[in-house]
């Protein structure tokens, strides 16, 4: 169970960073499955395709997100940056950095 939660957490973090690199269809299926809690069958029925088609698309999206992170490392860099910001003693300066990060 913990492994599933960890996978879900990573995938949703990666999705937030890399969703614009996915097609609209891939985004829709990922969001329905992971954020709206639709089953593969429900998504397939709504789109009038086979369940295996949705499964294949979802697995492809998961693979792509992992590959994007492996190559670009945006999530890793963000976490490193957050750790550094938290070391700043001046709260106003820390807030300024957090606000700057939110823009990107």
Automatic annotation (TrEMBL):
InterPro entries from the UniProt entry: RNA_pol_sigma_r3/r4-like, UPF0122, WH-like_DNA-bd_sf
Family named by the database record: Belongs to the UPF0122 family.
Cited function: Might take part in the signal recognition particle (SRP) pathway. This is inferred from the conservation of its genetic proximity to ftsY/ffh. May be a regulatory protein.
Name assigned to this protein: UPF0122 protein X271_00475
Source organism: Candidatus Hepatoplasma crinochetorum Av
């Amino acid at each position: 169970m913990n492994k599933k939660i960890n996978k879900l957490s990573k995938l949703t973090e990666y999705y937030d960073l890399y969703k614009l690199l996915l097609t609209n269809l891939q985004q829709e299926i990922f969001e329905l499955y992971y954020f709206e809690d639709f089953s593969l069958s429900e998504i397939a029925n709504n789109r009038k395709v086979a369940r295996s088609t949705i499964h294949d698309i979802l697995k492809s999206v998961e693979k792509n997100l992992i590959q994007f992170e492996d190559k670009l490392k945006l999530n890793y860099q963000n976490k490193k940056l957050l750790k550094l910001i938290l070391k700043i003693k001046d709260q106003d300066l820390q807030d300024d950095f957090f606000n700057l990060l939110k823009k990107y």
